[in-house]
Fold each of these.
Amino acid sequence: MIEGGRIRLNRWQQAAVAVGSAVGALLNPRRADLIAALGETTGKPAFERVLERMKRSPEGRAVLLERPRVVSAEVGHVRDLPPNTFGAAYANFMASRNFSPDDRPPVRFMDTEELAYVAMRAREVHDFWHTLFGLPTNLIGESALKVIEFEQMHLPMCLLSVIGGTARFSERQRSLFFQHYFPWAIRAGMQSTDLMCIYYERNFHEDLEDVRRKWGIVPAPVPPKQNVT
């Protein structure tokens, strides 16, 4: 979980890392390490609230106790599941984009092992959420998912990412996002179950539409024009 080791920072150091990461991420949104650092240095209170919610949830407590990891060694078997299942849909999502679950940066700036795991869990289940909500990984899709994540976890990084993402939209993208994706994402984030309190790995074998209904997830709307990047 913390292969790179944790780094303890005072408040001034946290602020410096946060500002530097925010500027760097705006200049180069593909820098996952900077986005991760921004999330950690600005999101401790939010992660603490998520941790408390998980402790109050039977399924969330099971996740905290067993600490499952979304890495190839643990989730590689989903490629062999029937095509209608949640696990197969996730495998297809990853394969179609040549993504690996092992590519997530380690957690470095959380104070405790427990908080570090919560931050890592949020990072690792991100692609489950793409799969469940039917969101692409383009600028619009990522921005819409960040709206849902903000509704769910209230991480400042999510709000900053939406602001930064929409600033880079073309006029056509901006119109599409605010007319179709943004209103849906607000509703989707509010009406779905607590996404951090789900033991996703126990549901890989279930039908994708069944788990969507069980968790109150409504897939993204089909926009009027496809293939917007």
Amino acid sequence: MPTPTEAAGTQPSPAASSSADTPVIEFVDVEKRFGDNVVLKDLNFQVARGERVTLIGPSGSGKTTILRLVMTLEELSGGYIYIDGQPLTHEQRGGKRVPVSKKQQKALRTRIGMVFQQFNLFPNMTVLENITEAPIHVLGQTKAQAVQKAHSLLEQVGLPDKADAHPTSLSGGQQQRVAIARALAMDPEILLLDEVTSALDPEVVGDVLNILREVADTTNVTMLIVTHEMGFARDVSHKVMMFDGGRVVEEGHPEQIFTNPSHERTKKFLGAVLGH
């Protein structure tokens, strides 16, 4: 299912990439294999600008792999991913699938932020240093700019007094809030959320989800979310996609997916997760 740009064997123009109609994320015939194990095959979907899309499904269905491909933490086995109409890792050139330049990949990567399941904070750095490191060295912000933004974000996530603390002195919930602040410090166009509450104690899950709800309510950031928190998915999503075996088995508005799913696999999964 090549895009018109792909069929022409050319790269989208800057004007095309800024069009409101251009998907912020587009998967075209994406395939991902780990050895002989095919995790994703012939995957095609789009995420519109400002849209919040949640991927649900059983463990091993390929959801986290999708996020890692967008983050370029995994390499595509086949197909194409476009960010704002620009090829992220591979493009069609002269009728062949070839890698894009590292410069282009890096430029697109700076538009994407990710919050991981396991926080991934630098233990040797303070909270403030964790948040300001990338804005200074990747975005080229001055230290004063980055520090001012970091303090504002720490206020937003409820940790204004933790700037000089090290991650090891923080609880899991506090570390995840720092990780959210770190991702937002890059002013991402796209925010990827990978099971951000699964490593947390139950009593702090609500605090972290409330921060993400606020981000959804107060910004136009595009979100691609993997979660087992079905209430959160229902609250913040514009669209929910049910995955099984590396394929989309059903997608639709949260109300439709959670109250009247049409696919038997979706019904079975939600019955197990929701307990009915």
Amino acid sequence: MTIAEPPIRALHDDRRSVGDGVHLVARTYRKGVRLDRHMHRQAQLVYAAKGTMQVTTPKGRWLVPPDRAVWVPALFAHAIDVLADIEMRTLYFEPAWLAREQRSDSLTNEFVVRVSPLLHQAILALFDLSSSRARTELLIQLVMLELHQAEDSATFIPLPHEPRCRRAADIVLADPTRDYEIETLARTVGTSARTLSRLFSAETQLSFKSWCQRARVAAAIQRLSTDANVSVKQVASDLGYASVPAFSHAFRQVTGKTPTEFAEKT
């Protein structure tokens, strides 16, 4: 396990820092880059101002298109896969700073937030070199407030740990376009349908059917956010849905939006 060093391009200038506990890093990554499993001594808010990434933690996979950001606690193992060229803007928070701000207890788990226009502009404004210290402090406070108002789990796929259940999950994730029968999948991983159903419910808090639907919708989100030329009809067909209305219904159940509404915001 790699513990990454503090950000190389952290902003240490007093005019840009909030006390000594917040650092900013801007980087660009090309599609296909993988940041292998590692952790940071700081907590971090990872945002792709452009592009799409996938963040994998011990609990599951978070798909992070441009209208989402992911919170990763300090010393929390994660890997990042760049699915489309990204302009990453990362805010690093020292644990001592979070404790002083009385925010550490509420930020001990990873989560994804829906990035509102306000949060988007606040993050980008933090990287404005002309910002005064007072402005930077206010922007940091605004970002922290927005984190608690925009938490969203629509792009999260919980990953089971029990070996048989995990093998079944990996089979589905390898090709989420198929319509998997739990009886067939259970035989493949060496258990009964009843046991596999129970395991999925206990380990992911979702039924097997709901988990498969979430995996399929996540595949749709990835396609819509990385291919500007693909149509909703094509995605629905590629993912095995009988019709666009059926696909839209499933998509809305998971994300609260239709595929068209989602595509317009990415």
Amino acid sequence: MAGQRRNEIGRAVPLLAPAYLWLTVAIFLPLSAMIFFSFMTGLPNTGKPWSFTLQNYAAFFQEDIYWRLLLSSLRLAAEVTFWCLIIGFPAAYALAKLLKGRMREAIFLLIILPFWSNGLVRIFSWAMVLREGGLLDTTLNAILPFKISIDLMYSYPAIVIGLVHSYVPYMVLTCYLTLQAIDDSLIEAARSLGASRWQTLRRIIVPLALPGVIAGAALIFVPVVGSFMEPRILGGRTGTFYGTVIEDQFVAVFNWPLGAALSFILLAVVLVVLALASPVLRRATS
């Protein structure tokens, strides 16, 4: 058995080595540098004297603006995840159980279309739709018998709309995979035994699709917490969140140590959230 195990490991190492080498170079080395920067008073390449300190992490607890923005970012991520679920789950169910053939392929194409364009293109497209005199405002005034003014730019709803548009495909795809794996005979058996559509959905479809829902929620929640492009462009002054503050530290203020410390605090909070959700994950996948 030991010899067989060594042979299996020997065959797996050449296949795993490129992936782990890439992860080491592209992820772990930059993270190591960021950890080093987060404990510094300044950058070594500036020529100024520097030393190690914990003040960058202490600033998060001393300045209430940082944890208030973090709470706002967590709320934004939860809200975007909720709307992605509300929009994505019915679409995934229709793709998995209702649509067939070319119609399914056409809907899939529309769903993954956001992946084919640059993120900035999507955001500025929404800016042209949501601003006063934009596409939405012009269309509604052309249809309605009375004049209205719709200007959602630089508002919280505009941020949510932009983020939902960017991340809802993740929810659709993950839910589709789990819904597609549900045997249709289970649904037919429930209906033949007198279960209503709501009972079938609540007691069969949703529990079996829960792993896909949770996977999609994780894929959406984690990046949205630290998002900064959509809040910056679509939110304006109201788009100040934890991710935008981190971006300012690196780009505008050039305070990399503080930006690195705030980034790792965000990473720690996300890991805590995932750890708290792990019992649900284990029950859903068991």
